[in-house]
Amino acid sequence: MRDILPDVERWRARGERVAVATVVSVAGSAPRRPGAKLAVSEKGEISGSVSGGCVEPAVIETALQVIKDGKPQMLEFGISEEENFEQIGLACGGTIHVFVERLDW
Amino acid sequence: MSALYEELKQQLAQERGVALATLVRSSSGQGIGAKLLVFPDKSFHGSFGLPELEARVVEDAEQAIWIGEPGTRLYTLGEQTFEVFIEGFPPPPRLIIVGAGHIAIPLTTFARTLGYRVVVIDARAAFATRERFPHADELIVAWPDEVLARMDLNPSTAVAILTHDPKFDEPSLKVVLSRQVGYVGAIGSRKTSQERHERLKQQGLTDEQLSRIHAPIGLNIGAKTPEEMALAIMAEIVASRYGKDRTAILDWTRK
């Protein structure tokens, strides 16, 4: 939370709405631990991370949707090394859940 | 409408402990995204609309403030299940050193390097000087037990009692052991520690309280110089912060 605050504050000062994505659970090995956050501004700027970069594009897309409709979403990303090789997945295996919400609380 | 966010930001800026609980799943699909901001005294702001769930989450969130390991917990109320993500934001760790002697000087330096706020307390003005402690965040010349009694002592606080003088050490220990601090250690040989233990017991401290004192203080690394003793103490404080016991320290097969 502390790492994304300066950027979030900057965006809010410009009057932009913001979504925050948080890793809420991890099974197996994953690049970031629960609590890791990615903030996304209305204009698509980002701050922080929820993985090593592999799931960020999908999270950003969802975040922009959540900024518009205000409905929080739970995303699941998982991989068994081969089957998801060409799809979105985590580099090192494991499953993560990412909760995406608009910062309106 | 960002009342909770503003309040969270303020708690973090003021370096006070706080936890944030978010309802991330519910069997009914209702209430997703609802939040509670939980304070160290178990008061809270925000709502899940279910007082029974709130009461249970607040208990867990208060503990999470000090542990700082975020995670999702499952709650069941009758037929309904809820998943709540709880993240604690502990204040920065703080080390209070009672006794501004020769070990306190390198201990202050080590603690500062490791990100601790350092407070040095000694009733003897000749010891607690800025020249001796240029890096201490606070230097207080006063009776340590009186100062400690007025301080916000919490699980992010470590206390190292280093005066070697029972008239300072023992009243300080009594104050510290009446609160929930993360670590308390007191200087003295095994014999001195045992004698102090007996005296404090006679003065009404419980076995549970006395068992919380790390004494002799520090890990047994063979320290001889004040710097090495400070290292042994600081290593023990870090180990205790992460819940390591003395026997696990060299055992990489144990968490």
Automatic annotation (TrEMBL), chain A:
Chain ranges passing through the membrane: none
InterPro entries: MoCofactor_Util/Proc, XdhC_CoxI
UniProt superkingdom: Bacteria
Domain XdhC- CoxI: 11-78
Pfam families to which the protein is assigned, alphabetical: XdhC_CoxI
Protein name (record): XdhC- CoxI domain-containing protein
Gene source species: Thermogemmatispora aurantia
TrEMBL record, chain B:
Pfam family, one: XdhC_C
Domain of life: Bacteria
Domain XdhC Rossmann: 95-237
Signal peptide range in chain numbering: none
Domain XdhC- CoxI positions: 12-73
Annotated PANTHER family: ALDEHYDE OXIDOREDUCTASE MOLYBDENUM COFACTOR ASSEMBLY PROTEIN, MOLYBDENUM COFACTOR INSERTION CHAPERONE PAOD
Protein name, entry field: Xanthine dehydrogenase
Lineage: Bacteria, Bacillati, Chloroflexota, Ktedonobacteria, Thermogemmatisporales
